[in-house]
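Lecture 7, part 2: worked example. A protein chain together with biotin.
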Amino acid sequence: MTDILDAEAIAEGVLPSLRPQLRRVTVLAETDSTNAELARLKPAEQHAHAILAERQNRGRGRRERRWHSPAGGNIYFSLGWRFTVGDHPFSTLPLVVAIATANALKRTGLEGHGIKWPNDILVDGKKLAGILVELKSGVNHTSAVIGIGINVRMPKTAEENPQELIDRPWVDLESVLDAGRRSCDRNRLASSLLDQLLAALGRFENTGFESIQQSWKTYDLLEGSDITLQLDDGEIEGIAGGITGDGNLILHTAEGERRTFHAGEVRVYRGIRTY
Ligand code: BTN
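Predicted complex, written out as structure tokens:
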């Protein structure tokens, strides 16, 4: 199936009650990175502006990694957002975005996906979507560039063979929707992503993370399982105990300590070796 991303169709697909909050949708055939593209705009043009691209030639992942971004049917999406007032717990924003993304994926009919703290969307231990939130603080505001990459239909051509280019377990949406029997309309998925994000960002601005935290539990892949957390200077093992109100990971260690971490990478959970 070849579906082309269409800015008008995406904007029109957003729920009428949320559409006034969206300023603009732009679709590009190619860019270096939709996050970088948004960040280059004047601040006034970033807010509530969604940029999608068919292909990225320098797609960025977390921890300075590359995000493999071939043309052919994935989602590379960024939304600019300017938070003006309030004492928002920005450390939880990547988690809020992960929940919104998981909800949008659920609307496609996907089941069984979850979030590996802080914001990787996985199916059976394999990465389906990744999130890169980049923040900039000003005197009276904080601006966010919210980047989301979803593997929808990964091209399997020899020159862009993702098996060789992505060094970690991954999966695409179309191979898991009804065990590969159903395709995904990317424009509808992008509208749904906007529905979920606009609603979640509104709640986050008004009531912080608290009202959203409950949804974390429905997607948390780690709570109660043995995990190995990779830190800058080594690894630590323990049992994951959910998250704190400011989005930190709780870990119960073998020594009986309860520790919390604001950064780190979970390498192993339930015996599954992953990111
Ligand atoms: C991760 O490492 O898991 C985060 C991946 C984020 C990829 C998306 S694709 C759209 C946006 N533009 C980028 O360059 N990166 C993000």
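The pocket of biotin is lined by residues 33-35, 56, 59-62, 65, 67, 76-78, 120, 130-132, 147-149 (CB under 6 Å). The longest strand covers residues 126-137. Keep this in mind for problem set question 3.
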